Amino acid sequence: MLSYWLAAVRRSAVSTVLVAVVVSGAMAGVLISEDTSTWAGSLLQGTLFGLAAGAILAVAIATSNTWNARRAAARHGLLLMAEAASLPCTAEIRVPVPAGTTPYQLTDSVLCALKKVPAPRIDEVEEFTHGKLTVVCGSSSANPVRLHISVVTDRNIATVTMDARPVTTWKRLDGGASWSVLTAFEPHVSKAVQYDTDGTDIT
Fold this sequence. Notes:
Keywords: Membrane, Transmembrane, Transmembrane helix
Strand content: 15-25%
Strand order of the largest sheet: 1-5-4-3-2
Number of strands: 5
Radius of gyration: 23 Å
Transmembrane segments: 12-33, 39-62
Largest sheet: 5 strands, antiparallel
Order of helices and strands: HHHEHEEEEH
Distance between the termini: 35 Å
Structural class: alpha+beta
Protein backbone atom coordinates (compact mmCIF):
# COMPACT_ATOMS: atom_id res chain seq x y z
CA MET A 1 0.00 0.00 0.00
CA LEU A 2 2.84 2.40 0.79
CA SER A 3 4.32 1.91 -2.69
CA TYR A 4 0.96 2.78 -4.25
CA TRP A 5 0.60 5.83 -1.97
CA LEU A 6 4.03 7.13 -3.02
CA ALA A 7 3.17 6.51 -6.68
CA ALA A 8 -0.10 8.39 -6.22
CA VAL A 9 1.79 11.34 -4.73
CA ARG A 10 4.04 11.43 -7.80
CA ARG A 11 1.06 11.18 -10.18
CA SER A 12 -0.67 14.13 -8.51
CA ALA A 13 2.51 16.23 -8.23
CA VAL A 14 1.71 18.51 -11.18
CA SER A 15 -1.76 19.35 -9.85
CA THR A 16 -0.52 20.03 -6.33
CA VAL A 17 2.33 22.23 -7.58
CA LEU A 18 -0.13 24.31 -9.60
CA VAL A 19 -2.37 24.69 -6.55
CA ALA A 20 0.64 25.68 -4.42
CA VAL A 21 1.69 28.34 -6.95
CA VAL A 22 -1.82 29.81 -7.20
CA VAL A 23 -2.31 29.85 -3.43
CA SER A 24 1.16 31.33 -2.86
CA GLY A 25 0.52 34.11 -5.37
CA ALA A 26 -2.91 34.91 -3.99
CA MET A 27 -1.72 34.94 -0.39
CA ALA A 28 1.33 37.08 -1.17
CA GLY A 29 -0.82 39.48 -3.20
CA VAL A 30 -3.23 39.99 -0.32
CA LEU A 31 -0.43 40.58 2.21
CA ILE A 32 1.48 42.96 -0.06
CA SER A 33 -1.68 44.97 -0.81
CA GLU A 34 -2.14 45.48 2.92
CA ASP A 35 1.41 46.72 3.45
CA THR A 36 3.67 47.27 0.45
CA SER A 37 6.68 48.05 2.63
CA THR A 38 6.93 44.42 3.75
CA TRP A 39 6.73 42.80 0.33
CA ALA A 40 9.69 40.46 0.97
CA GLY A 41 8.19 39.04 4.14
CA SER A 42 4.77 38.85 2.52
CA LEU A 43 6.22 36.94 -0.40
CA LEU A 44 7.89 34.46 1.96
CA GLN A 45 4.70 34.00 3.98
CA GLY A 46 2.69 33.44 0.82
CA THR A 47 5.19 30.89 -0.47
CA LEU A 48 5.21 28.95 2.79
CA PHE A 49 1.42 29.00 2.96
CA GLY A 50 1.18 27.76 -0.63
CA LEU A 51 3.67 24.95 0.01
CA ALA A 52 1.70 23.86 3.08
CA ALA A 53 -1.56 23.89 1.10
CA GLY A 54 0.03 21.88 -1.71
CA ALA A 55 1.46 19.31 0.71
CA ILE A 56 -1.90 18.88 2.47
CA LEU A 57 -3.66 18.46 -0.88
CA ALA A 58 -1.09 15.89 -2.08
CA VAL A 59 -1.49 13.82 1.09
CA ALA A 60 -5.29 14.01 0.92
CA ILE A 61 -5.44 12.97 -2.75
CA ALA A 62 -2.93 10.12 -2.34
CA THR A 63 -4.59 8.80 0.83
CA SER A 64 -8.09 8.87 -0.67
CA ASN A 65 -6.91 7.15 -3.85
CA THR A 66 -4.96 4.53 -1.91
CA TRP A 67 -8.02 3.63 0.13
CA ASN A 68 -10.16 3.35 -3.01
CA ALA A 69 -7.47 1.33 -4.80
CA ARG A 70 -7.16 -1.06 -1.87
CA ARG A 71 -10.91 -1.69 -1.94
CA ALA A 72 -10.92 -2.13 -5.72
CA ALA A 73 -8.06 -4.64 -5.56
CA ALA A 74 -9.62 -6.56 -2.67
CA ARG A 75 -12.94 -6.74 -4.53
CA HIS A 76 -11.22 -8.78 -7.25
CA GLY A 77 -8.91 -10.75 -4.95
CA LEU A 78 -5.83 -8.80 -6.03
CA LEU A 79 -2.81 -7.51 -4.12
CA LEU A 80 -2.44 -3.76 -4.63
CA MET A 81 0.74 -2.84 -6.51
CA ALA A 82 2.48 0.48 -7.22
CA GLU A 83 1.78 0.15 -10.96
CA ALA A 84 -1.94 0.45 -10.19
CA ALA A 85 -1.36 4.22 -10.02
CA SER A 86 -0.20 4.40 -13.65
CA LEU A 87 -2.63 5.39 -16.38
CA PRO A 88 -3.37 3.98 -18.84
CA CYS A 89 -2.77 0.39 -17.71
CA THR A 90 -1.56 -1.85 -20.53
CA ALA A 91 -0.71 -5.50 -21.12
CA GLU A 92 0.29 -7.67 -24.06
CA ILE A 93 -0.31 -11.37 -24.61
CA ARG A 94 1.36 -13.44 -27.34
CA VAL A 95 0.19 -17.01 -27.88
CA PRO A 96 0.49 -19.63 -30.65
CA VAL A 97 -2.72 -20.34 -32.57
CA PRO A 98 -3.60 -22.67 -35.46
CA ALA A 99 -2.78 -21.32 -38.90
CA GLY A 100 -5.79 -19.59 -40.44
CA THR A 101 -7.24 -18.38 -37.15
CA THR A 102 -8.74 -14.93 -37.68
CA PRO A 103 -8.70 -11.96 -35.30
CA TYR A 104 -12.51 -11.96 -35.39
CA GLN A 105 -12.63 -15.53 -34.05
CA LEU A 106 -10.34 -14.63 -31.17
CA THR A 107 -12.17 -11.38 -30.44
CA ASP A 108 -15.45 -13.25 -30.27
CA SER A 109 -13.88 -15.83 -27.97
CA VAL A 110 -12.56 -13.06 -25.69
CA LEU A 111 -15.93 -11.31 -25.48
CA CYS A 112 -17.73 -14.56 -24.66
CA ALA A 113 -15.17 -15.33 -21.94
CA LEU A 114 -15.36 -11.87 -20.35
CA LYS A 115 -19.15 -11.91 -20.28
CA LYS A 116 -18.96 -15.03 -18.08
CA VAL A 117 -16.71 -13.33 -15.51
CA PRO A 118 -18.83 -12.25 -12.51
CA ALA A 119 -16.56 -9.30 -11.70
CA PRO A 120 -15.63 -6.91 -13.15
CA ARG A 121 -18.99 -6.80 -14.90
CA ILE A 122 -19.27 -5.51 -18.46
CA ASP A 123 -21.90 -2.77 -18.56
CA GLU A 124 -21.56 -1.79 -22.21
CA VAL A 125 -19.92 -3.10 -25.37
CA GLU A 126 -18.86 0.02 -27.29
CA GLU A 127 -17.00 -1.72 -30.11
CA PHE A 128 -16.89 -5.24 -31.44
CA THR A 129 -15.31 -5.62 -34.85
CA HIS A 130 -12.61 -7.59 -36.65
CA GLY A 131 -9.89 -7.73 -34.00
CA LYS A 132 -11.21 -4.80 -31.95
CA LEU A 133 -13.16 -4.94 -28.71
CA THR A 134 -14.00 -2.05 -26.38
CA VAL A 135 -16.07 -2.48 -23.24
CA VAL A 136 -17.02 -0.27 -20.30
CA CYS A 137 -17.04 -1.61 -16.74
CA GLY A 138 -18.36 0.02 -13.58
CA SER A 139 -20.40 2.65 -15.40
CA SER A 140 -22.50 3.17 -12.27
CA SER A 141 -19.45 3.79 -10.05
CA ALA A 142 -17.34 6.90 -9.49
CA ASN A 143 -14.51 5.47 -11.61
CA PRO A 144 -15.89 3.72 -14.72
CA VAL A 145 -13.23 2.04 -16.86
CA ARG A 146 -12.97 1.68 -20.63
CA LEU A 147 -11.07 -1.46 -21.67
CA HIS A 148 -9.85 -1.69 -25.26
CA ILE A 149 -8.59 -5.00 -26.62
CA SER A 150 -6.85 -5.37 -29.96
CA VAL A 151 -6.14 -8.75 -31.58
CA VAL A 152 -3.65 -9.26 -34.43
CA THR A 153 -2.66 -12.59 -35.96
CA ASP A 154 0.55 -13.26 -37.89
CA ARG A 155 0.73 -16.80 -39.26
CA ASN A 156 0.47 -18.93 -36.12
CA ILE A 157 0.97 -16.21 -33.50
CA ALA A 158 -1.75 -14.06 -31.98
CA THR A 159 -0.84 -10.78 -30.27
CA VAL A 160 -3.43 -9.34 -27.92
CA THR A 161 -2.93 -5.83 -26.52
CA MET A 162 -5.07 -4.54 -23.67
CA ASP A 163 -5.50 -0.91 -22.65
CA ALA A 164 -7.55 0.14 -19.61
CA ARG A 165 -8.15 3.76 -18.68
CA PRO A 166 -10.82 5.89 -17.00
CA VAL A 167 -13.83 6.85 -19.08
CA THR A 168 -13.19 10.38 -17.77
CA THR A 169 -10.01 10.93 -19.78
CA TRP A 170 -8.59 13.88 -17.82
CA LYS A 171 -8.17 11.87 -14.63
CA ARG A 172 -4.60 11.39 -13.40
CA LEU A 173 -5.70 8.83 -10.78
CA ASP A 174 -8.74 6.56 -10.66
CA GLY A 175 -8.33 4.71 -7.38
CA GLY A 176 -6.80 1.66 -9.04
CA ALA A 177 -9.99 0.96 -11.01
CA SER A 178 -8.30 0.61 -14.43
CA TRP A 179 -5.53 -1.58 -13.07
CA SER A 180 -8.02 -3.80 -11.22
CA VAL A 181 -10.14 -4.30 -14.35
CA LEU A 182 -7.11 -5.08 -16.51
CA THR A 183 -5.49 -7.42 -13.98
CA ALA A 184 -8.73 -9.27 -13.25
CA PHE A 185 -9.55 -9.75 -16.95
CA GLU A 186 -6.05 -10.55 -18.23
CA PRO A 187 -5.99 -14.29 -17.31
CA HIS A 188 -9.44 -14.77 -18.86
CA VAL A 189 -8.34 -13.07 -22.06
CA SER A 190 -5.18 -15.19 -22.15
CA LYS A 191 -7.18 -18.38 -21.71
CA ALA A 192 -9.74 -17.32 -24.33
CA VAL A 193 -7.15 -17.04 -27.11
CA GLN A 194 -5.26 -20.26 -26.33
CA TYR A 195 -5.86 -23.39 -28.36
CA ASP A 196 -4.91 -27.01 -27.94
CA THR A 197 -2.42 -28.44 -30.42
CA ASP A 198 -5.28 -29.92 -32.45
CA GLY A 199 -6.77 -26.45 -32.94
CA THR A 200 -9.63 -26.83 -30.47
CA ASP A 201 -10.48 -23.80 -28.36
CA ILE A 202 -9.74 -24.76 -24.72
CA THR A 203 -12.30 -22.32 -23.36
